[in-house]
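Give me structure tokens for this 123-residue protein.
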Amino acid sequence: MEIRNILLVDDEADIRTVAELCLRELGGFTVVLAASGPEALEVLAGASFDLVLLDVMMPGTDGPTTLASLRAAGVHTPVVFMTAKVGADEVARYRALGVVAVIAKPFDVLALPAQIRAIGERL
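Here you go.
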């Protein structure tokens, strides 16, 4: 599957800015930003995406809760979690929730577009 349009959800403005810049400039992706789970739900209610990059640890509505809300709302867009917690147990738990991949934070800015393309090839 070719990934072109990405919704990036992260509560940290610096991470949103850096990831958006690298995905657009180095990867040629179209990127829409959301700062929270509820904002992501609003965005997804009015637009479709090829992939959602979703931070796991956010205040209020965290990534797993946001994912559950997306699925309950009938949104079946592939989701990739971004997190610093990438131990085998955590990754297994995330996979059990239905994510297609997990990207470790802090992510490698130069490698991120290639990671997204590789995920698309597996979908």
